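Supplementary material to the annual report.
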Amino acid sequence: MTEPLIDVRNMEISFAHGFVKAVRGVSFQLGREKLGIVGESGSGKSTVGRAIMRLLPPTAKVTADRMTFHDTDLLAASEKRMMEIRGKQIGLILQDPKYSLNPVMRVGEQIAETYRLHYPKVGRKAAETKVLEMLEAVKIRDPQRVFRLYPHEVSGGMGQRIMIAMMLIAEPEVLIADEPTSALDVTVRLDVLALLDELVSRRNLGLIFISHDLNLIRKFCDRVLIMYAGRVVEVLKASELDNAQHPYTQGLLASLPSIENPPARLPVLTRDPSWLTQPTIGA
Amino acid sequence: MIDVENLTIRFGPRSPLVVKGVSFSVERGKSFGLVGESGCGKSTVLRAISGLNRNYGGRISLDGKPLEPERSKAFFRDVQMVFQDPYGSLHPRKTVRSQLIEPLRNQNLPIKENAVADVLKAVGLDPSLGYRFPHQLSGGQRQRVAIARALILDPPVLLLDEPTSALDVSVQAEILNLLADLQKERGLTYLLVSHDMAVIAHLCSRVAIMNGGEIVEETGIDQIRSGHVQHPYSQRLLSASRAYGKQEMRPAEIMSSA
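Predicted assembly:
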């Protein structure tokens, strides 16, 4: 791997004065690749994503031996520097467009706002042209019309494209996508993924894709971190997920129902307490 | 067991039809699946059957007897519903025990001493959990409590509205197994609504595929498993769901092949 975009070593995150340890020693490096983080709810996967953006509430205590974006130390960076990084250098796509768009602002204006915040010298007209280009890039058929719509007037799939457009317009180098397709139907999900795949490859971005959906991660990512109770228990190439060694990963894979030949009973995951104390794996 | 004939539903007198003449019937002791994308009307159909929405046209009958739009008290002893989100469907300030007793009290039934303990055991929970509040339970435990609440009246029919879509895959497997076991033990009839073809395929023997307020195709589960569906929409939905499964494909290829 060439120079990593994001380098995290031994990240620990705790809440409530250290009583609740949400993330316990996570290490990984992100290059220009698609890195998946998979785990059940409560495994700490979203917390990792938010910690990189420094978006956790003040009650969260984040420590790490190293947490950098290029040469910037994300733990020590000033809030002013973080404002530059958020959006412009690292973008974050959230799960549900219904809750993450401003309901009383036209979607085009919201996208333009992001752009003009990061490029203050750009005029209103130029920003609008750029937004229309971006809406076209995320394959929205009638950008002129959609520009003027409010979030409640667009469908879930279109809302998520708008979120993607908003995140990519400032041209970040790294994109963190936190369950970007979980709120969508299967048919729409594939469209949005294909789009995300194309944009990430064409712009050569680094992507952290957070999801609980193993099938999706398997299709979409290059490498996968499997998290359990705040630790990374296994790191795999996405194509080799079937050869997973850790019983947790195997259990997750086995518990997926299948269309073609469903077993009489789905195997149920039995959690071994020793998983909690095994050393975490770096990637 | 459940017969639905030409069901039509609209919200408001001038609004377009949301459900446009849906008919199907569910055999006793079998599981019937309604599958489709969000907004296709599948949950609306279920809510009409459950009596939550009285403004419908067409006929719904249970066990051969046609039902009045305003459901009788006796109806709820026969048909109970499990909702999608166990975080929203349990009362946050009542203990598990008092929520489980409520259906019995509504029906003026005697509250037997070990009724709650029995039903909790039936769904695989420890009876001591009866004294907890919903926020003290995990998502999977909450969904088990919601199933227990539906079962405490011992109804022959359960309506399941996306019972596992708010849960992790590992917990989903536990709940699907539980539903399969309960059906075997008690001979329950299930009407299951889901957007997840794999969940439907796991539990159901017949499936109706809905799109735009209509059933485009009703078929047996073997046709779904072997991929022999007729309607173009069913084919599209099935190939999207399959593409999601085992084969090694990139999203771009899936889109071009679908």
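Chain A touches chain B at residues 40-41, 156, 185-191, 193-194, 197-198, 212-216, 219-220, 239, 251-252, 255-262, 265-269 (CB under 8 Å).
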